[in-house]
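Quick one, tokens below. Sequence please?
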């Protein structure tokens, strides 16, 4: 991938990988330029999302970014708080985060995942006005889904190693597998639907259409 190709991906959007009734909908901050260029989530070579997902037990093997659709078989999906690709998350404005939080809440309400896992606690705080939020299960629901704030797997996040991140992701998996609730599970979660596949991240209603 040339520098010119990466710069050409600036401000692109990448389709979500989603279906109705997922076990966990992982939500990144926003696409990197590598993700914008390839169309594959968490595609930057330094990003630890895919190794951590496997090491924590969510996937039986380490998937490649190009295999992202395989997540649906495991009841998992990916979206982002902000849809447009940038080189760094600090290029985004607080208003973009807040608007992205509103779009995300509407998307979650339509898709009805059991858990929304926001990958980056700072983005979660800004998008939903939860200034004191910490890594771990949260005390409120979004769009009917329970919420867990996870550490950002970016290689720039030096506070967490792949192993300590895998342990935190594993805590979430344990709750998913044992139907543990933190906070208490909202009533009326939708039953799993057929995979919706790749959908427009900017249109919440698109998340429930077949593509």
């Amino acid at each position: 991938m040339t520098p010119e190709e990466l710069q050409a991906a600036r401000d692109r959007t990448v389709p979500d990988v989603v279906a109705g009734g997922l076990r966990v909908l992982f939500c990144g901050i926003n696409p990197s330029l590598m993700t914008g260029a390839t169309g594959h989530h968490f595609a930057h070579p330094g990003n630890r999302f895919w190794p951590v997902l496997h090491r924590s037990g969510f996937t039986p093997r380490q998937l490649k970014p190009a295999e992202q659709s395989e997540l649906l078989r495991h009841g998992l999906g990916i979206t982002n708080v902000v849809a447009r690709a940038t080189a760094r998350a600090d290029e985004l404005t607080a208003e973009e985060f807040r608007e992205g939080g509103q779009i995300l809440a509407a998307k979650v309400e339509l898709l009805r995942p059991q858990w929304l896992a926001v990958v980056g606690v700072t983005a979660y705080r800004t998008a939903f006005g939860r200034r004191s939020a910490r890594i771990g299960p949260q005390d409120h629901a979004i769009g009917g889904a329970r919420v867990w704030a996870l550490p950002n797997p970016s290689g720039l996040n030096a506070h967490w190693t792949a192993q300590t991140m895998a342990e935190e992701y594993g805590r979430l998996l344990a709750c998913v597998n044992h139907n543990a609730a933190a906070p208490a599970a909202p009533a009326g979660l939708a039953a799993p639907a057929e995979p919706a596949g790749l959908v427009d991240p900017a249109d919440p209603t698109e998340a429930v259409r077949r593509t």
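The first strand starts at residue 16 and ends at 19. The CA atoms of residues 17 and 197 lie 6 Å apart.
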